[in-house]
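1st attempt posting a full record on here, be nice pls
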Amino acid sequence: MEFNAQRVKLYVELHIKKIKTVRDVSRKLRIPYDILRKEFLRTERKPLGDFILMTKIRVIKEHLQMHDAPCYRICKEYGLRDDTGAKVFKRITGVTMLEYRKKHRRGDSKPQRSKLPAKFRLKSRLKPGPKPRRRKRSS
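the predicted structure (as tokens):
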């Protein structure tokens, strides 16, 4: 079986919301974990884990430019915890998510429609649940 790094990269880019680790990619593509890591590193000259993380950061940047969704929700959408996701974003880009959004907002203050396919867009805001019932006072 010949290793195809382009197939791996394409899978990662198309399914970035579902992928959390290299093992997830290994299971879905049915390539042994060790072979996947070593061959990707050999052909692409960077670890697959770094490629996954950089792909997530790139897509998060696009969402920050086009949407007003809170940063924690964007992180959660891509499988990053809101606290570590923000730290990783700052470590890689050098600015916080809010600073990036302010500097790179496209057009006027209104968010633009996403150019990404529907499956990559953020889901609409959650609808509020039912109101809590009030307790009757006992006299």
